[in-house]
Amino acid sequence: MSDSRLEDLQRVAGPVSRETFSGLQAFEGMFQTWAKSINLSSSSTIPDLWKRHVLDSAQLAPLAAGAIQWLDLGSGGGFPGLILAFLLKERPGASIDLVESNRKKAAFLATAIGQFALPARVHAVRIGSEIKGLRQPEVVTARALAPLPQLLELAWPWLSSGARGLLHKGRDYAHEIQESSLLWQYDLIEHRSRIDADSVVLEIADLKRK
Fold it and tell me: How many domains does the chain have?
């Protein structure tokens, strides 16, 4: 079971050490324990947490293999931000900032970061508020946060300043792209999800207002 899980992880994320894999498995248990008390994700997805959340998040890592400065917006229960933090431990100097305004979820994120010594920081503020000490990221991520037109508005400060977006989107992504094109101009690469045939990861760069 463990070997097949590791193989699945390496298939979507690239080379991953057994130490990182073990950490992710321990995090999975921690998440399930906390999820009994606070709403970290949809309860229907918890039985398939490894595939639906861990692997789905991990597939972002090889899309920006050289990046070391990351920013995750609306981190929620840690997907993709905490999963990326585990994988970034293997990149010298890499780190990720997690923005989550819900205090209970932010407390969970901070606890996980401390327990697993992850290269991450939590900012318990609303997106759009001042984020103290935040450096310009190379990559901005977001998952299940907002429709694309609104999401681009939230990520505008960074995507207009040289960062790339790696944004999870579901089956309605084509409609969201069409809507966003009325307001925004950007370079776009569509990466088919390696986990869900109906989903994509939108890689967005050089964001400009129309």
Answer: 1
